Amino acid sequence: MIGDIIKDAVFPLRCAMCDEVLPAGRRGICKACSGKVSYLMEPRCLKCGKEIEDEDEDLCMDCSGNTRSYDAGYPLFNYIPPVSDSLVRFKYHGREEYAEYYGKSIAERYKDNFFRLGIEAIVPVPLHKERLKKRGYDQAKLIASVISRETKIKMLDGFLERVKNTAPQKELNDVEREKNLMEAFCIGKSYKGIIPEAVLLVDDIYTTGATIEGCTRVLKAAGVKRVFYTSVAIGKV
What we know:
By secondary structure, the protein is of the alpha/beta class. The protein contains nine helices and six strands; from the N terminus they run H-H-H-E-H-H-E-H-H-E-H-E-E-H-E. The strands form two sheets. The chain has a four-stranded parallel beta sheet with strand order 1-6-5-2. The longest helix has 19 residues. It is globular, with a radius of gyration of 18 Å.
């Protein structure tokens, strides 16, 4: 404990939401941000997990109008400030240490669900090697490794590979996004293990669902029977 306090004083940790320096000994987010961040609330879409306004509806408008091959989603937050600002820093500005807070929060919130669903393996949504080289770290893999550690569910690194360096999703419309991702993934060429029956995909943000859909189709074609996903945040629209 004393060692941690000394370490924090020399190498101060930052709040995973506002990026301010945390008091020595504190982890995750600061007191001010803990009052600003809230989990997704019910009612929620039974497919993607997004908040919906009508409790009599089972699906959000997005899922009711689009094919969803995965079984269900477990996102943590809405993609709005301060979460959206936090994820931008995490993904594009080198704040890879935020993964500890994200992964622990997901595990704390959903691990009972993951056990109930019989999830056998955690699979991070892979980053293409060219993008990994540029960024220096794989953000989904960092989050997935924390979830794996906290839940004791094994992570299968390399089970999925991204074979196509797709254009950024934000630059495409819905049809282009789906086409962009349907052939982007494959089962890792070096993977020699048993195909698990139930898998949890991990990503940082769920926007249109095209990425998770692309991964799911590959996994189910390989013999995975049930695919679920979790993410730090999900877009509201």
